[in-house]
Amino acid sequence: MAWQAIGMEPRVGAMLPCNVILREVEAGVEVGAIDPVASMQAIENAELHTVAGQVRDLLAKAVAAV
What we know:
elongated; two-stranded antiparallel sheet; 2 strands
């Protein structure tokens, strides 16, 4: 999906939510990731926003599974 997004908007590479953080906390492990929809708000491209929504859904499923 990152490749798809870069094809739509070449300058988007620096804004992609490629980092996921795992951190040990008292209650277990905390998983954090940037919301791709929020990070793409600065770019006016409806097609890119659709892909960001798909990525957000996939990240949410991955975090929920941990």
